[in-house]
């Protein structure tokens, strides 16, 4: 298996598991990741943590595999695009725990997640322009939305190594944890999120997805619709009770 899966207390951890190849992405890896993400639609899964085994998160497309490819890049990218859409459309928080290098489509994978937790030793590099390619796997969509058009163009053109600290300054990284305690702290952070009001968080994600291409009027209507749904949830009821009883909420995700 090139994707390992571990489930505990509502948290599904998916690990890219080709450590000897710095988790370079193969078709097999994308197919396995796609299957795992489809299964993650199960309501028992309330948050997903995507990470890499060994010293890298992922160095992107396995360049050895594409050298002997049979299909066009356009056809090959269908495997990537399926995974990116699944990450974005899962109605629950998806976190990337970036333990080392995230390059090319490995970087893109992290951008399709809802939050990025980075080890102090992590770094990012678009890598595409260095081999005469354009950004793919959603990078041209997510990166300018996070860092702005001109910074995205700068990063995509010069493809520097962006340290975790620099990525934090740019808004690419949301939390940084020390190398020694990274796995433990990322897991604890994700476990806490897996105990959250999952339905409301999923609806929040849908709102943010829609806001990229909607007018204020459309968003006001969509917010009202989503609030109606959240307002009928068990978690809203529990949240209100907990507030009145001055105790922490015990959300069920429904
Ligand atoms: C690798 C790779 C790699 C194979 C390092 N593949 N072996 C989608 C579909 C269609 C077309 C193509 O594009 C895509 C999407 C993409 O992702 S394109 C972008 C692909 N990725 C890259 O171009 C990144 C290439 N790698 C690097 O720039 C560096 O290796 C980084 C900056 C990631 C890490 O640097 P270091 O930590 O200094 O490690 P290293 O460079 O020494 O690499 C260690 C080994 O890993 C080395 O092999 P070796 O046998 O010499 O030890 C590399 O050749 C190998 N490796 N990336 N993507």
UniProtKB/TrEMBL annotation:
Gene3D superfamilies for the chain: 2-enoyl-CoA Hydratase, Chain A, domain 1, Lyase 2-enoyl-coa Hydratase, Chain A, domain 2
Protein name: Enoyl-CoA hydratase
Organism lineage: Bacteria, Bacillati, Chloroflexota, Ktedonobacteria, Ktedonobacterales
PANTHER family to which the protein is assigned, alphabetical: EG:BACN32G11.4 PROTEIN, ENOYL-COA HYDRATASE
Top-level division of the source organism's lineage: Bacteria
Protein family membership: Belongs to the enoyl-CoA hydratase/isomerase family.
Any one Pfam family match given in the protein's UniProt record, by short name: ECH_1
């Amino acid at each position: 298996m090139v994707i390992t899966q571990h489930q505990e207390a509502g948290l599904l951890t998916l690990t890219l598991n080709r450590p000897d190849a710095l988790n370079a992405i193969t078709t097999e890896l994308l197919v396995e990741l796609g299957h795992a993400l489809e299964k993650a639609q199960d309501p028992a899964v309330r948050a997903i943590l995507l990470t890499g085994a060994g010293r890298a998160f992922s160095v992107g497309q396995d360049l050895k595999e594409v050298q002997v490819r049979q299909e066009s890049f356009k056809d090959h990218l269908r495997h990537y695009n399926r995974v990116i859409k699944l990450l974005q459309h899962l109605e629950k928080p998806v976190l990337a725990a970036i333990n080392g290098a995230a390059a090319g489509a490995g970087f893109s994978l992290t951008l399709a997640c809802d939050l990025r937790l980075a080890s102090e030793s992590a770094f990012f590099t678009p890598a595409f322009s260095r081999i005469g390619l354009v950004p793919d796997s959603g990078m041209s969509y997510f990166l300018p939305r996070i860092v702005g058009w001109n910074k995205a163009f700068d990063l995509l053109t010069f493809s520097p190594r962006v340290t975790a600290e620099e990525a934090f300054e740019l808004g690419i990284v949301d939390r940084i944890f020390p190398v020694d305690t990274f796995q433990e702290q990322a897991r604890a952070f994700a476990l806490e999120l897996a105990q959250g009001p999952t339905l409301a968080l999923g609806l929040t994600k849908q709102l943010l997805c829609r806001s990229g291409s909607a007018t204020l009027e459309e968003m006001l209507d969509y917010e009202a619709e989503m609030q109606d749904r959240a307002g009928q949830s068990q978690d809203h009821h529990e949240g209100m009770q907990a507030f009145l009883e001055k105790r922490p909420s015990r959300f069920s995700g429904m």
